[in-house]
Design brief:
Layout lengths: L19 H7 L8 H4 L13 E6 L2 E6 H4 L6 H5 L14 E3 L6 H10 L8 H10 L3 H8 L4 H11 L5 H18 L4 E8 L23 H7 L7 E3 L8 H14 L3 E9 L3 E3 L2 E2 L3 E8 L1
Subcellular location: Cell membrane; Cytoplasm, Cytosol
Keywords: Cell membrane, Cytoplasm, Membrane
Protein name: BTB/POZ domain-containing protein KCTD7
Length: 288
């Protein structure tokens, strides 16, 4: 008869069981997953690009030389295709850029040969050049119409106090009135004046200025707010009232708002003695 005791179940014999030191030696840490195993993991080595690069920009296909993409060092495209960053590819092996490709051809044409887009595409290409940080293209576009004229226009509007705030106020008032009256249009009164008014025979403007030296008491006598919804002015620039009116209409039109305006008279507010305000008042009809 063979008697088996409980002590024989766990043997201290090195041939029957692995020692703790042996277990430590045989244990191996899991291998670091590769890009294929992990799916989303990025390659550790710098990415290599062919001399001719196929591109998929937002679903639109392009093909260009690697040297074209790297033409200007301080651009996003040069950085993307420098090898320092991983660029994913689509099912056909094209390098994918997650950006609308409508104007990417204009970007490539400039990088290839310095060609600029036609006037009707300048604004849109300018936005793409900003995104890709292509400084030389931005400089060239700013020197042609319509962006060249826009720089002059913005310089003028920079002299106009609270221009953007007044523009937003016109939109808000017109929207509120149209909704209250259940109509597609609304009318509001806008005062646009260039100079401080009125000019008395005894006043002379400051040198190279449209403002006048008045005492505090005189200023209060002439101060008042015309009975209008929005008032623009005064400003110190060569541009006149009609220039500002054109800017207002243009900016509203760019937002898809139809604007008609006409002068309906002047402010007849009596100020002092025989002096009246005489600032021109315009009626704006805003159609949604």
């Amino acid at each position: 008869m063979v008697v088996v005791t409980g002590q024989n179940k766990v043997s201290g014999n090195p041939d029957d069981a692995m020692s703790s030191s042996d277990a430590e030696d045989d244990f191996q840490e899991p291998a670091t997953p590769t890009a294929t195993q992990a799916g989303q993991a990025l390659p550790l080595l710098p990415q290599q690009f062919p001399e001719v690069v196929p591109l998929n920009v937002g679903g639109m296909y392009f093909t260009t030389r690697l040297s074209t993409l790297r033409r200007y060092e301080d651009t996003m495209l040069a950085a993307m295709f420098s090898g320092r960053h991983y660029i994913p590819t689509d099912a056909e092996g094209r390098y994918f850029i997650d950006r609308d490709g409508t104007y990417f051809g204009d970007i490539l044409n400039f990088l290839r040969s310095g060609d600029l887009p036609p006037r009707e595409r300048v604004r849109s290409v300018y936005k793409e050049a900003q995104y890709y940080s292509i400084g030389p293209l931005l400089d060239n576009l700013e020197d042609i119409q319509p962006l060249k004229g826009e720089k002059v226009r913005q310089a003028f509007l920079g002299l106009m106090p609270y221009y953007k705030d007044h523009l937003e106020r016109i939109i808000e008032i017109a929207k509120l009135r149209a909704m209250q009256r259940k109509a597609r249009f609304a009318k509001l009164k806008v005062c646009v004046f260039k100079e401080e008014m009125p000019i008395t025979p005894y006043e002379c403007p400051h040198f190279n200025s449209l403002r006048f030296e008045r005492s505090e008491s005189e200023t209060k006598l002439f101060e008042h707010h015309c009975e209008v919804d929005v008032s623009f002015g005064p400003w110190e620039a060569v541009a006149d009232v009609y220039d500002l009116l054109h800017c207002i209409v243009t900016d509203l039109s760019d937002r898809g708002i139809t604007v008609d305006h006409q002068c309906i008279g002047v402010c007849d507010k009596h100020l002092i003695n025989h002096y009246y305000c005489k600032r021109p008042i315009y009626e704006f009809k805003i159609t949604w």
